[in-house]
Design a protein that fits this description.
The complex is a heterodimer of chains A (70) and B (239). Chain A has 70 residues and is mainly alpha-helical. Chain A contains one helix and one strand, in the order βα. The relative contact order of chain A is 0.05. The chains are: A mainly alpha (70), B mainly alpha (239).
Chain lengths: 70, 239
């Protein structure tokens, strides 16, 4: 059996459903990327926090040492 | 011992260039795939434009099911080598397959509504079997995170991934042997597609597979960074 193709559109085109399916797919993708971006934000915040605490610890251990440029 | 070896994540590093190359390839493939779907592939005689969902729904289903099986294979590698990196890879692959699986269910429901007039047909084995696979894997994460000991967590999750991964092809085979053929048989009839539709389908499948691989790499990279950060905090005595 071969799948026939047409040059003229059938009466029921269903373009709304096609748009809905592709929009749903890209929406899922967008939500996933947004969650990833949120998590990346947390990692960046933790990294900054770790950096600040390390610097603080270094200063407490050796107050005379000059602060290294960031 | 460096934090990399302490967490066992050293070889999970995905360098920026690989990620960038993969991302660019995915965007290009997705663009090409969408162009072929809407501007090249002919309109099917019976379903009209509605058949265009085929180029999204079927590749998503194939990639999702292959991802579940791949997760099982990675879990076997974990149990054989006791290397935690395989467990993490299996976890990320199954996690991504679940997300793609949600896409399959939603796009399938939309297609069913347009084509059959119903959002869901309970008497159709293909639909119900995919839902069963999804529900089975929906228990993977609760099972995993219900166990606190990391070693036991990885081991139990691997056993689950292997058993469930073996269930996927068996389930697929059982459905194909069933008598109801309301749902179109795609893999068996792919060779009957006109060449233009076959090409579009192949490009769509490749682009969805690329998207899957890229997102898995991003997820692995993000997990590795978090683990590394946690390990460094521990080494510095902040945790």
């Amino acid at each position: 059996m071969t799948i026939p193709s047409a040059t003229a559109l059938p009466a029921n085109t269903g373009d709304g459903y096609v748009a809905a399916a592709y929009i749903v797919f890209f929406l899922i993708l967008l939500i996933y990327v947004a969650i990833m971006a949120l998590r990346l934000g947390h990692v960046q915040r933790d990294l900054r926090d770790l950096q600040a605490r390390t610097q603080e610890q270094d200063e407490r251990q050796d107050p005379a040492r000059e602060r290294e440029p960031a | 011992m460096t934090p990399d070896t302490a967490t066992g994540q050293g070889a999970l590093r995905v360098d920026g260039r690989t990620l960038r190359t993969l991302s660019i390839a995915t965007v290009l493939a997705m663009g090409l795939s969408l162009s072929l779907v809407f501007f090249y592939a002919p309109i099917e005689l019976e379903e009209g434009l509605l058949q265009k969902i085929f180029y999204l729904h079927v590749p998503l289903a194939i990639v999702s099911l292959c991802g579940f099986v791949l997760g099982g294979i990675m879990a076997i590698a974990h149990l054989r080598t006791r290397d935690r990196r395989w467990d993490l890879r299996a976890y990320v692959t199954i996690h991504m397959s679940l997300i793609f699986g949600v896409g399959v269910l939603l796009t399938g429901s939309i297609w069913a509504r347009g084509s059959w007039g119903h959002w869901w047909v309970w008497s159709e084995p293909t639909l119900v079997s995919f839902l069963i696979v999804m529900l089975l894997y929906a228990t993977y994460q609760p099972l995993r995170f219900a166990i606190e000991d990391p070693e036991r967590q990885a081991r139990y999750a691997s056993v689950f991934a292997i058993v469930a991964g073996a269930f996927v092809p068996l389930n697929f085979l059982a459905v194909r042997l069933s008598t109801s053929y309301l749902h179109p048989r795609v893999l068996g009839s792919a060779s009957n597609l006109p060449p233009s539709m076959r090409l579009t389908f192949a490009v769509s499948l490749a682009s969805i597979a690329l998207l899957f691989a890229t997102l898995c790499c991003y997820e692995l990279s993000a997990k590795r960074t978090r683990m590394l950060l946690r390990a460094r905090s521990r080494i510095l005595g902040f945790q």
